[in-house]
Amino acid sequence: MELEPDRFMLTCAILSVQRNLRILGVFSRLARTEGKTMYLRHIPRVAGHIRRAVDHPELADLRAPVIQLLDHWAAPA
Hints:
Structural class: mainly alpha
Shape: elongated
Order of helices and strands: HHH
Number of helices: 3
Number of domains: 1
Strand content: under 5%
Oligomer: single chain
Low-confidence stretches: none
Helix content: over 70%
Distance between the termini: 51 Å
Number of strands: 0
C-alpha cells in the first residue's frame, strides 16, 4: 500500500483538530469542576495547535467556525 503524502497530511490535520478540541474541553472541565486551574496555562498552546491544523487547505470550510469558537471561548468573561 502506497502512502499518499497529501492524504496523510489531511488526516493528521483532522485528527489534530479533533484531539486538541477534546483536550480544551478536558482542561476546561478540570479547572471548573475540580479546581485544577493549572491546566489553564496550557490552553493557548493547545489553541495554537488547532489554529495551525485548520490552516490545511482542505479544512477551509471548517476554519472560520473553529477560529470563531476559539476567539469567543478565549474572550474575557
